[in-house]
Amino acid sequence: MIKVGIIGATGYAGAEIARILLGHPEAEVVWYGSKSYVGEEFASIFGGFFKIIEDKCLDDNMEELADQVDVVFTATPQGLCASLINEDILNKVKVIDLSADFRLKDVAEYEKWYKIEHKAPSYIEEAVYGLCEINRDKIKDARLVANPGCYTTCSILTAYPLIKEGIIDPDTLIVDALSGVTGAGRGAKVANLFCEVNESVKPYGVATHRHTPEIEEQLGYAAGKKMVINFTPHLVPMNRGILATEYATLVKKDGKLPTEQEVRAVYEKYYGSEIFIRLLNSGVCPETRFVNSSNFVDIGFKIDERTGRIIMMGALDNLVKGAAGQAVQNMNIMFGLDETMGLRIVPRCP
Question: Homologous superfamily of 151-318 in CATH?
Answer without folding.
Answer: Dihydrodipicolinate Reductase; domain 2 (3.30.360.10)
